[in-house]
Amino acid sequence: MDAAAAPEGAQSEPSEPSAPPRAISPQQFHDAAGVDDWRVLYWGAHAFFRARSFAEAARFVAAITAIDEVVRHEPDVDLRHEGVAVKLISRDVRDLSTRDLEVARIISGVAREQGLAADASVLQVVQTAIASPPSAEVTPFWTAVLGYVRPNDTHLVDPLRRGSSVFLQPEERVGPRRGRMHVDVCVPHDQVHARIDAALAAGGRIADDSFAPEWWTLADSENHGVDITTWWGRESTRLPEARPE
After folding, report:
1. Which of 9, 77, 112, 128 is most buried, judging by how many CB atoms fall within 10 Å of its CB?
2. CB 192: neighbour CB atoms within 10 A?
3. Other CB atoms closer than 10 Å to residue 40's CB: what's the count?
4. How confident is the model at residue 244 (pLDDT cuts 50, 70, 90)?
5. CA neighbor of 227 nearest in space, from 182, 188, 167, 177
6. Residue 37 · residue 120 · CB < 8 Å
7. What does the alpha-carbon distance between residue 67 and residue 112 come to, in Å, rounded to a whole number?
C-alpha cells in the first residue's frame, strides 16, 4: 500500500515523536471513539474482518503491514480465507494502551477502504484451567506435553500464541461440587448473553452466576464446568505472554 492510499493519519513519512503510550482499562478502550470493530477479550483487543476470498484477505494484511504505526506495534495477525483476525496489546506496557487505540483506528480505516466488514460474533479466547494442590508440581508435565512456555507462576502459553492458554489454578480456588479442570471461554461483552442462551438451549445449566458479569459458570448434563467470561469487572487484560526472542 503506497502513501497515497493510506488512511488519514497513517502516512508512511516520518512524523513527530508521539507521547509515550499510557495504559488504559478495558472500559476506557471501549468508551473511546473509532473502535467499534474491536472487543477486549483475554490478552488484548481483538477484531475479525470478513473477506470474500483468501486473496482479498491477503491484500488487507499487505495493506496494514505497509503502515509504519502498525508495523512498529507488531499486532498478531491470523490470515484465513474467511478473513483476518487481529489482536492488539502493548507488550512494553503489558496491557492495553493509548497506542492500541491509535492502531485499532488505523486498521479499521483500511478495512473500510477495502470493503471488509468487522464481525464480532466470531471472537473468542479459550483457556483451560487445571487445579492442583501446592505440593503437586504438575507444571513441568503440562509445559512439556503441550510444548508451551511458562511466562509466570500461573499460566502456560503457546509460544506463537495460537492455541488456548492453560491456567494453573490454586486448589483452594476451586468451588464446592466442581471438577478440578474446566474451560474458560472469553467472549465479547455484547455477545455473552447470546452465548449463554445457546448453551442453555443445548442442555446446559447455570451452575453459578454470583460473579456475573465478570463470568458465569455453566455446566453440561455430566457436570463439566465452563466459565463464560467478559472484560466486565476487570481493570486490565492481565497479559501473561512471554514473547520468544
Report:
1. 128
2. 20
3. 28
4. very low
5. 182
6. yes
7. 15
Q: For residues 111 and 60, is the Cβ–Cβ distance under 8 A?
A: yes
The size of the chain, in residues, is 245
Find the mean pLDDT for residues 153-178: 76
* Residue entry with cell 499487505: 62
223: buried, middle or exposed (CB in 10 Å: 19+, 13-18, 0-12)? exposed
Angle at 202 between CA 220 and CA 182, to 5 degrees: 30
CA 114 to chain CA mean position, Å: 24
Alpha helices in the chain (DSSP H): 26-31, 54-64, 68-73, 98-114, 139-146, 192-201
The pTM score is: 0.81
d(C-alpha 218, C-alpha 67), whole Å: 43
**For residue 81, which phi and psi values (nearest 5 degrees)?**
-70, -20
Question: φ, ψ for residue 86 (rounded to 5)?
Answer: -130, 135
CB atoms within 10 A of CB 135: 6
- CB within 8 Å of 10: residues ≥ 6 apart: 67, 68, 69, 70, 106, 109, 110
Alpha-carbon distances of 187 from 56, 170, 234, rounded to whole Å:
26, 24, 14
Residue whose entry in the numeric block shows the C-alpha cell 455446566? 219
pLDDT in tens, 128-137: 988 766 555 7
Residue by residue, DSSP assigns 162-219 as: -SPEEEEEEGGGSPTT--SEEEEEE--TTTHHHHHHHHHHTT-EEEE-TTTTTEEEEE
